[in-house]
Amino acid sequence: MDRDEKKVTLWTRQDARSLDELQKNGVIRITRFHLEEKFDLIADHIIYLYKWFVDAADKRVPKPQGVEFPIWCSVSREYMLRPTDGQIVYELEVDSSEIIYFDGLKWDYVLNHHYVPKNEKDADDYALEMKNKGYKNTFSFIDEKTAHFFPQERKRVMDSWNRVFEIDNWDIFRIQANIWEIRPEMIKQILREDTAI
């Protein structure tokens, strides 16, 4: 894939009901309701982190008025989420100026409330520093019940999260993309469970 192309092919798996939304509203957007339905018991945790992502991503690619949350996409057909029962995959052609690329492995650090290191040495240095300070559980820095005890550490961890947007190595297994919405003209193909992939 050439990241310098004006149009880029992306894939995103969505609930099949999104076709109704597209027909009714002329656009597919992710709302809080979608996230609550998808993530159920951990929805509040995910939404908290998605809100951080929205604010950070909006600085890179401004979100359209009325958009709440981004749409997760794969940059490779090979590693895309496959269609399943009740889920379809949109193959999209997206203007490169609308895409927010990020490192999915770094995003895992964010999901787990961890510091995102610059590199392996930074990770080792950070772990040693936390150990020397006597911190056994760095999750406390972000947890709303305990974060007020660690304002500097909380800020340091959350500032490090911006590294998710730093692409150190273009690896289609780790790199993911976000867009703010799906419009009809972006859809090249819809893949269903019975589609040969």
Short description:
This protein has six helices and six strands. By secondary structure, it is an alpha+beta fold.
CATH class of the domain at 7-114 and 166-191: Alpha Beta
Rounded radius of gyration (Å): 18 Å
The CATH level-2 architecture of the domain at 7-114 and 166-191 is identified as Alpha-Beta Barrel
- Mean pLDDT figure: 93
The biggest sheet, with number of strands, parallel, antiparallel or mixed sense and barrel status, is: 3 strands, antiparallel
Shape: globular
Instruction: Name the helix and strand elements from N-terminus to C-terminus, one letter apiece.
Output: EHHHEEEHHHEE
Low-confidence stretches: none
Number of helices: 6
Helix % is 25-40%
Q: In CATH terms, what is the fold-level topology of the domain at 7-114 and 166-191?
A: ADP-ribosylation fold
Percent of residues in beta strands: 15-25%
Between the first and last Cα atoms, what is the distance in angstroms? 19 Å
Q: Give the strand order, joined by hyphens, for the main sheet.
A: 1-3-6
Number of strands: 6
- The structural class is alpha+beta
